[in-house]
Amino acid sequence: MNRQLILEDGTVFKGEGFGSLSAVSGEVVFNTGMTGYQEILSDPSYCGQIVTLTYPLIGNYGINRDDFESINPAITAFVVKEAADFPSNWRSEMSLDEYLKMKGIPGISGVDTRKLTKIIRQHGTLRASLCSMEENKEEVLEKLRATKLRQDQVKMVSTKSPYPSPGRGHRIVLVDFGMKHGILRELNDRNCDVIVVPYNTTAAEILALSPDGIMLSNGPGNPKDVPQAIEMIKGILGKVPLFGICLGHQLFALACGADTVKMKFGHRGSNHPVKDLRTGKVALTSQNHGYTVEEGTVAGTDLEITHIALNDGSVEGLSHKKHAAFTVQYHPEASPGPEDANALFDEFLTTVESVKQGDEAYAKA
């Protein structure tokens, strides 16, 4: 069935619908990854967004049981140049079309994704509607321009109640703002005793769990839409070692007095070079964010910039000058993408161990 993608600037892309045939609206973004569409589909950070994949052929290796980053995808819609009808891979259990139908997610193929990406890069992220060809363009545009983006994405994707992922190592409280399962897998692989808690858990509730360390996960939307998390971070800072990823990085910056701004079109892909200012080394990273820490606001806080993006110079990492706390804007767990930055999990746990040893030495003294 032919469908149309109508952008808020009036541009219309026509193509063939696949997956669900429901009509949806959302923010159009693009991801430059060549592979990893299953992880992208199931990344909760895409809540409320229509994702365009710049690689021309999507779905050729199907969908399998092992590569999900959440149980229920929060993505709004999928835009591709070509969707493979007959995947070929020994792990494949269903086609992309079958999976999108099962989860009620609409898709459109046959779109000139290169042109769409150039429009987004020129004008910035745009709202759009994916609908049937029968819909009147002007009526759709009127509704689209009157619609405000949701501000409760984190609430939508965060766990509703705490749950454990037991281990016999360090106890880590993982605050779920829209957590990718890859983060939990990395902690489980290191035998951590993980307790996952909702986004609105208070500092007192977290500290009552006697954590050795606290992780702030990735998540969707504007960090300023989660003020309770900013207050929570202020309450735990300096009491327990802290490590933040993506949205967690932005929330940490706000809690420490820096500011965040919306980017023109964000960073979404698996090949973003990031430089560690402490070592001079460059890592290729997986990224998915539409907001960034404003560099000029870091001065005057107790934060220092540790990493920058080589493509545009934006802030990619922070550390606290007085407390055991650091964050990165990119995804060290990858999924999908290169695992150059995976050692950050070990760095965090080394910090946790050092603080524990210091506390014991202090107590004995």
Question: Which key terms come to mind for this protein?
Answer:
Glucose Oxidase, domain 1, 365 residues, Rossmann fold, ten-stranded mixed β-sheet, disordered C terminus, 19 strands, seven-stranded mixed barrel, alpha/beta
> In the CATH hierarchy, what is the architecture of the largest domain at level 2?
3-Layer(aba) Sandwich
Query: What would you call the shape?
Result: globular
CATH class call of the largest domain = Alpha Beta
Helicity range of the residues?
A: 25-40%
Main sheet record:
10 strands, mixed
Helix-and-strand structural type: alpha/beta
* Record field, number of beta strands: 19
What is the H/E string? EEEHEEEEHEHEHHEEHEHEHEHEEEEEH
Keywords: Amino-acid biosynthesis, Arginine biosynthesis, ATP-binding, Glutamine amidotransferase, Ligase, Nucleotide-binding, Pyrimidine biosynthesis
GO molecular function: ATP binding; carbamoyl-phosphate synthase (glutamine-hydrolyzing) activity; glutaminase activity
Pathway: Amino-acid biosynthesis; L-arginine biosynthesis; carbamoyl phosphate from bicarbonate: step 1/1; Pyrimidine metabolism; UMP biosynthesis via de novo pathway; (S)-dihydroorotate from bicarbonate: step 1/3
Active site: 246, 331, 333
How would you explain this protein's 3D organization?
The chain is an alpha/beta fold and 365 residues long. It has 2 domains: 2-149, 3-Layer(bba) Sandwich (Glucose Oxidase, domain 1), CATH 3.50.30; 154-364, Class I glutamine amidotransferase (GATase) domain (Rossmann fold, 3-Layer(aba) Sandwich). The protein is built from 10 helices and 19 strands. The strands form 3 sheets. It has a 10-stranded mixed beta sheet, with helices on both faces. It has a 7-stranded mixed barrel with strand order 1-2-8-6-4-3-9. Strand 11, helix 6 and strand 12 (193-197) form a beta-alpha-beta unit. Helix 8 crosses helix 9. It is globular and about 65 Å long.
